[in-house]
Amino acid sequence: MRIELEKRPQASVFYAVLSPFIALVLTVIAGGIMFWLLGKDPVSALYSFFVEPLLDVWSLHEIAIKAAPLILIGVGLSICYRSNNWNIGAEGQFIMGAIAGSIVPVVFHEWHSPLVLPLMLIFGMIGGALYAAIPAFLKANLNTNEILSSLMLVYVAQFFLDWIVRGPWRSPEGYNFPVTRNFAPEAILPEILDSGRTNLGFVFAIVAAVLIWFMMRYTLKGFEITVLGQSERAGRFAGFSSRRMIWFSMLLSGALAGLAGISEVSGNINKLQPIISPGYGFTAIIVAFLGRLNPLGIIAAGLFLALTYVGGEAVQLTLTVSDKVTRVFQGLLLFFVLSCDTLILYKIRLVFPGRTAAVAQDGLQGGAE
Amino acid sequence: MGIIEAILLTVVTAATPLVLAAIGELVTERAGVLNLGVEGMMIMGAVLAFVATQATGSPYVGILAGIGGGALFSLLFGFLTLTLVANQVATGLALTILGLGISGQIGEAYVGMSGTKLPPIAIPGLSEIPYLGPLLFKQDLIFYISIALVIGVNWFLFKTRAGLKIRAIGDNHGSAHALGIGVIRTRYLAVLFGGACAGLAGAQLSLVYTPQWVENMSAGRGWIALALVVFASWRPWRVLAGGYLFGAVSISQLHAQALGLGIPSQFLSALPYVATVVVLVLISHNRRMTLINTPASLGKPFVPDR
């Protein structure tokens, strides 16, 4: 048996909408097989992974808290990927944003003012954007591959955070634990609902997604991003500069990742510690693709991947499987998303050696179309 | 054995996995396929090598398991990017994310277990040479394979017909296809070779470098290997040189930590990653040279017309 692809005359709108859902179904099936291999009842495992968190107010809030950074980073990355700038170092920009934003509540902890929180958020965005400016500068001016440079900088950021919470910023009241002092109440993002912990970060995520959706759909900038991403040459003829686009997309996604970082630290953790992210910067890559690089799709995708985090924690408790299943799920999901996207541009045909004649005829008809 | 020799010995151990993973990726990229999943294939090789060694007691079975695991895992990448023409960058990332997840899952029961170290094999006669002998001729099997692979790949790519075909496909898959070369089939083989090498590199980590299983133990080495291929301008001998350069940087960083120079250990630990970026910048700032060296079809999808 052989698989052959036939290019569609134009991209299929039907499959563009359907492919993420096919991928979800395939992931759930593969997940069931995985639970079965681990010796668990697949139906009840999948139920407690994907359904139970949705039935409980506390876990719904957890999903919103985890979705916020995923959506913020994901929409930023979608701009990068649409314009062919492969920023995969959002995790590092997230960390640097969190550190930069924490300057106010940690270093100037005696300063109390309603300006603290807005300043933190601005510093967070600047921190993330500056950190993304490194691979942007290296790509735009020195022709350095941004995939590798942005990823290498993730490790550097992780070591930097580790140093700063163990060294200069270690809390004097922290009993020698590697944490900074707890943020003062005015440095903490307020909760938005009476029923639980969801904080303002979730609002930032939705607002950012809607704004970027608007930019992509209704502004010249959005058009520029799409054109340069699909064909740099065509973009040049239209007078767009791919070098400026490197800066624009990297700084924007860095700022959003930085905002996600400071929001997470301010709204959820309330201090800096050596580990502040369960890999949000990498999971957001999956979010961006599952959302088909569309900001509104990314909101849905971010909520779904947040569910995999919360569901992973749930099965860890109820079924005593490890939290690694979450990462396996996320990896599988990206695989299925990418495979299903083939359906948008191509017809997939299975070719059996015994039926060559029929296939040849098929091919002719395909050619006549 | 003097202190210098001991240090050089650790450099060899640190360089071997980088050389292995990079030489495999070099062949893959020469065929025009950009597989960013080296880190994922490496970590799968590491965990499977460790598990197989624990199960059988033989690190040689572990080596085979590592190679097989890396190759099988690369097949997944091949299916998506070659058969389904999925985006190579995104699929490579998926491979890395999935590899880190699955390896963590498989290795969970093995965390903290002490492993079996692959024994060194002394080559009679040569290993007696002062200084050089213990360094180069009293090493483990994986080291010898790494050197043989560099020599072999160099010969294969530039002196054989099959190697010429691979380079032709990497430079212009359309013309290669028109000449009747099986582009997809050859690329599958190149991807498999890259996966096998990355798996072997992983096996070296869990059987030689630190004979135990630690989650995420590849620690970015797969990515450094990718940078090495760029650094080497897709030439095998330069992969060897670059691998040892990076090995030396990561080892000197460890020794500097041990000496306690007053520099925070985190800064020294970050050094290999910073060095990777610096080297990448130095090697690629000349736009024209980069363009000449890079396989022209690298990362571009190919659908055969009928």
UniProtKB/TrEMBL annotation, chain A:
InterPro entries named among the record's database cross-references: ABC_transp_permease
Entry's Gene Ontology molecular function annotations: transmembrane transporter activity
Record's keyword annotation contains Membrane: yes
A Pfam family hit: BPD_transp_2
Transmembrane segments: 12-38, 58-80, 92-109, 115-138, 147-165, 199-216, 245-263, 275-291, 298-322, 328-346
Entry's Gene Ontology cellular component terms: plasma membrane
Membrane topology: Multi-pass membrane protein
Cell membrane in keyword set: yes
Protein name: Nucleoside ABC transporter membrane protein
Origin species: Rhizobium subbaraonis
From TrEMBL, chain B:
A Pfam family reported for this protein in Swiss-Prot or TrEMBL: BPD_transp_2
Cellular component terms per the entry's GO annotation: plasma membrane
Record-linked InterPro entries: ABC_transp_permease
Keyword annotations from UniProtKB, A to Z: Cell membrane, Membrane, Transmembrane, Transmembrane helix
UniProt superkingdom: Bacteria
UniProt subcellular location: Cell membrane
Membrane-topology annotation of the record: Multi-pass membrane protein
Residues annotated as transmembrane: 31-51, 63-86, 141-158, 188-207, 265-283
Record-level Gene Ontology MF annotations: transmembrane transporter activity
Principal place of residence: membrane
PANTHER family the record matches: ABC TRANSPORTER PERMEASE PROTEIN, SUGAR ABC TRANSPORTER INTEGRAL MEMBRANE PROTEIN-RELATED
Listed name of the protein: Nucleoside ABC transporter membrane protein
Gene source species: Rhizobium subbaraonis
